[in-house]
Write a structure and sequence with these properties.
two-stranded antiparallel ribbon, 33% helix, alpha+beta, 4 helices, 154 residues
Length: 154
């Protein structure tokens, strides 16, 4: 996959790839206020516990923590953990809702990117990993590090 020079990763959810098997990915817009955009551009967002829910034919992102903007007054600042509307096509919402309801999967945000001036969320349709799967991933990562270390020493 070619790297697009117009796309810049602002916030990454590295924990999601460790705790879940990502089956599919989608890109969605997010309905944000001005102070939220400023905080995200400064990298002051946390995707750790965030997830998507589907209600009334709309997709909502819950538990996305965006810190209040430093220079804005408290009157104009936003609620850090309010739910935010995800902007997806109707077919995408219906497909994601079907996967979540039937197969017991979940939708988690993987990262927030700046794409041509717009903040987008990369969402992953995910299945939770079991404890032994997580241990296996740690073992594989350690063996890869050891192999790289050996190759570097040569």
């Amino acid at each position: 996959m070619a790297v697009d020079p117009n796309v810049k990763t602002l916030v990454d959810n590295r924990r999601a790839r460790f705790e879940y098997d990502i089956l599919e990915t989608y890109e969605a817009g997010i309905q944000l206020t001005g102070t939220e955009v400023k905080s995200i551009r400064a990298g002051k967002a946390n995707l750790q516990d965030a997830f998507a829910l589907f209600r009334d034919g709309e997709a909502w992102l819950h538990n996305l923590h965006i810190s209040p903007h430093d220079t804005a007054s408290k009157v104009f600042n936003h609620d850090p953990t309010r739910r935010r509307k995800l902007l997806l096509h109707r077919r995408e919402i219906d497909r994601l809702r079907g996967l979540v309801e039937q197969k017991g999967l979940t939708v988690v945000p993987l990262k927030l990117v700046l794409n041509r001036g717009w903040i987008k969320a990369h969402l992953g349709v995910a299945r939770g990993k079991k404890l032994h799967d997580k241990r296996q991933a740690i073992k594989e990562r350690q063996t890869q590090r050891e192999i790289q270390r050996e190759l570097k020493e040569r």
